[in-house]
Write a structure and sequence with these properties.
Radius of gyration: 23 Å
Number of strands: 16
Structural class: alpha+beta
Number of domains: 2
Helix content: 10-25%
Oligomer: single chain
Number of helices: 7
Distance between the termini: 26 Å
Length: 365
């Protein structure tokens, strides 16, 4: 059976120790140290012990994340992870379980394991290139992609569990308990690990070219039709009152709403608007909102989300989930060029010299 995986790319924009307070600044450490400590902690650790959360109560609604499999490529200094997001509902043909007595085995939910100690859930596939500050996620029909939860898992493991992290300090309390702190020298610090969707910097350099043709700015957002009355934006309530006769199909769960504003922005203003949009959707694999520039003379609208870096991979796989090394070796050649793209936050978007060649793996939707 041929399986198609959608690959998303992320740029690690915050990684290391930061000071406390309003004017928090980076104090030290980096992604290389973070993943070295994390991988060392995972080594030879049983599957049920790979979560930094003690139980479902401390994890909350987001669920517990475990590490089902891992791989380190010394040549490229890259890490591959098969994480496991625990779930208790949605048991269908794409729902898997890991038996407590055999953590290397993966079973499909078929009703034959009722009463047995099985951790049900779905796999999440990630590859991390710490030196390049890149994260790659690969999502198949039977897997999940939750980049926010991945970053949270990394932060919690390194902050609370990874003894090899050189800034971790354990202090004894008078009652015999222990308090874990992170310190840079004598100063207290906290760990941040965050990433945003990667955009191809070559697309930004065209602002100067088409700024003269822009006639307006358009904002679109996919809104849920099931939101409660108190959860709806005020402008949407007004929309429903003014145009109540424009209905939707019964099966529709969402609706696209567009707001257009006449404008003739300069290239500098377009750059600022684009950057603000990237900040707003920077962590969403499938953003529900988009920003566009309307153009004259029938020219197509320029949508920001069309320029995120993404690609696909097809792999023959009969049953079960992928092992970390297996998937890493299969997609490595497909992602190498996109990994080399410069981070968007360091590119002068209006500098024509900043243009880098687009790769064959990059899709423009």
């Amino acid at each position: 059976m041929i399986k198609t995986g959608n690959i998303s790319y992320f740029s690690i924009n915050e990684s290391g120790l930061y000071s406390y307070g309003k004017n928090s600044k980076k104090m030290g450490s980096n992604s290389v140290e973070i993943f070295d400590a994390l991988f060392s902690w995972l080594k030879d650790r049983p599957f049920p012990d790979t979560s930094p959360w003690e139980d479902a109560k401390t994890a909350g609604k987001k669920g517990i994340i475990y590490c089902q499999d891992k791989y380190f490529d010394e040549k490229n200094s890259a890490y591959a992870f098969v994480l496991w997001k625990s779930e208790i509902k949605g048991k269908d043909k794409h729902f898997y379980g890991i038996p407590a007595n055999n953590h290397d085995d993966v079973v499909i939910f078929d009703g034959k394991h009722n009463g047995q100690d099985v951790i049900w859930g779905r796999p999440c596939y990630y590859i991390v290139f710490p030196k390049e500050e890149r994260i790659v996620s690969i999502k198949f029909d039977d897997s999940l992609c939750d980049k926010e939860l991945f970053c949270d898992w990394v932060s919690r493991v390194v902050s609370l569990r990874a003894k090899k992290f050189p800034y971790r300090v354990v202090e004894k309390n008078d009652d015999g308990s222990e308090t874990i702190k992170l310190k840079m020298g004598d100063r207290l610090a906290h760990l941040r690990f965050e990433a945003r969707l990667l955009y191809n910097p070559s697309t930004f350099a065209s602002f100067k070219k088409f700024a003269k043709d822009v006639t307006g700015v358009v904002y679109k957002e996919k809104i849920s039709l099931s939101a409660g009355a108190n959860d709806r934006p005020r402008w949407l309530e007004l929309f429903n009152k003014v145009i109540p006769y424009i209905g939707v199909r019964e099966k529709d769960k969402s609706r696209q709403v567009y707001i257009e504003v006449d404008a003739n922005p300069t290239a500098e203003e377009m750059q600022l608007a684009f950057e603000k949009h990237l900040e707003a959707v920077g962590s969403d694999e499938e953003p529900s909102m988009d920003l566009g520039f309307l153009r004259s003379k029938g020219m197509p609208t320029i949508w920001a989300n069309d320029y995120r870096v993404k690609s696909q991979v097809t792999i023959e796989k009969n049953t079960g989930i992928f092992k970390s090394k297996e998937l890493y070796e299969r997609v490595l050649d497909d992602v190498k060029e996109n990994i080399a793209l410069g981070p968007t936050e360091e590119v002068n978007l209006l500098d024509q010299s900043a243009v880098s060649a687009e790769t064959t793996n990059t899709e423009v939707a």
